[in-house]
Task: structure prediction
Amino acid sequence: MNIFCVGLSHHNAGVSLRERFAVDAAALAETLAALREHAPLNEAVLLSTCNRVEIYGLAGDASVAARACAEFLQRSAGVEAEFYRRDMAEGVRHLFRVVSGLDSMVVGETEILGQVKDAYAAALARGATGAALNRLFQQAFRVAKQVRTKTGITRGSVSVGSVAVELAEKIFGDLSACRVLLLGAGDAGARVARSLQSRGVRALVIANRTFDRAAELAAELGGMALHYDHWCGALDDADIIISCTAARGRVLSAADLAPMLPARGDRPLFLVDVAVPRDFDPALNGLEGVYLHNLDSLQAIARQGMAGRESEIEHCERLISEHLDEFLAWARRRGASAAEAAP
Amino acid sequence: MERHLLAGSTLFYLLGFANSLLSLGAGKFRPGRLNTVFIAGGFALQTAFLWARGQDLGRCPITSTFEVLVFLSWSIALAYLVVGAAYRISLLGAFTAPLVFALQLAALLGPSARASQPQGPPSGWLELHAATSLVAYGVLALACVAGVMFLVQERQLKMRVPGSIFHLLPPIATLTDAMRRLLWFGLGLLSAGIVAGFLVRVPVGHWKTGASLLVWAAYAAILLLWSRHVLHPRRVAQACVAAFALALATLPAMNALAGHLAK
Result:
């Protein structure tokens, strides 16, 4: 049984190259059919994400088939590239690592599992898979599930935006009732706001010195623009305030906020300061019901999350090795029975 | 047989405690499930014990310090199973199991572990008073646990980089809600217990009445000040811990009442 993988990923190709090779989801089945006409493949699955384009195949001669796959990809993209190739055990291990998120740009991310499932489903629907790749991919999905449930590889947030979301969820629980006020329309603040929007916050108000920029960002994020001079009026309603203005001094001090707190009752206030220099007075964190995090603390938590994930890699690799042995034993048994059946 | 039921129940709580320690230590606490199974198992055996003891005594089994401690830990387990399931604050179980185990172990090792032999006919109001008050204490113990969890989580959120327990504790909004409901529920039961106590018409001494009213007033004040926004949730959490310490200090008063019941 000659299973192989050929492809390129964020490890060996920049985004400008990867985007040339990317295959649109709608064109996946058609591309797979063309590939099978071009290359001598018994079975094949084509995986295309923003970080990788890979072909998993079963062929009588893996070297010839892998070369043909690489030629096909280069011809489709209209550009040459360096491809990696993994044969049999290494190819199987590679798939198990990919589907578990160990080979991802952000280690432990789980989106890849859905993408691999989609790629496999497309190949299965097209009749491009058989006993070997069916078994391989089903086992890969089991590996991914075990890695997620038995290790801490997905635990902890690893980006500033996801850390802000995690902190907000530990304050408010469900974010669907939260109102977000974004001060400034810079990229850092917009990224945090976007992360919170993805968790379904109730409202987003954006205040910026240049109103047109606020309106533009509000249109993009599905929020409401506000004149910067009026942002204090929106403070009472806000549950989360993200600040990323270019102000030289403090935008909000403890002395400004303290008199407003009694009217908030039990409602906590989460302040996210991603501005440099900082917009929020550090003394705000000392007020009851007010939680302040700045860029430094958010990045420190993200680093902690990443370190936690990296410390789990060894555990994940052990699980993967167990499954690899199981798959290889199955492949050997299958190879032996095929040989016996041969005339 | 009764002792076996209680020993079995204590073993379940010990397993719950050990499970909490192991999973928290490994940083892999999975909410609910095993911990709830252990607490439910301990609760079932405890219920069987209290039922058997009640049959023997012909009254509610709160006639000695031993029985009061068992009844109190049963109340805490009951409150956890009702509240923990309702609000999915599963980590409450990690804090509840050791508390219930400690109370029950104290009951087993305490000097009054032998069954007392009450004399005279049982008083329905007195038993209702004592039983309702003990269940109220169980609920207020959970409010105290929720308060401790709130204070720990609040501290984590104020830190520059939170520790690993941050990921395991529930959101402070959930804990605030749990504290509010537990306080109202506990105060309601405490009020019912006090009203039943007034209907007993047995002289128990001013100190006993005073201690009960002091505990009631402490919890009523917390809820009043909270509803008027004089107390912030953090202060409420601190008050929950302090008020429960006060409530525990009145347990000797209940013991005195238990002695009265036994006469």
User: Anything to note?
Assistant: Chain B has a mean pLDDT of 80. The longest helix of chain B spans residues 124-158. DSSP finds ten helices and no strands in chain B.
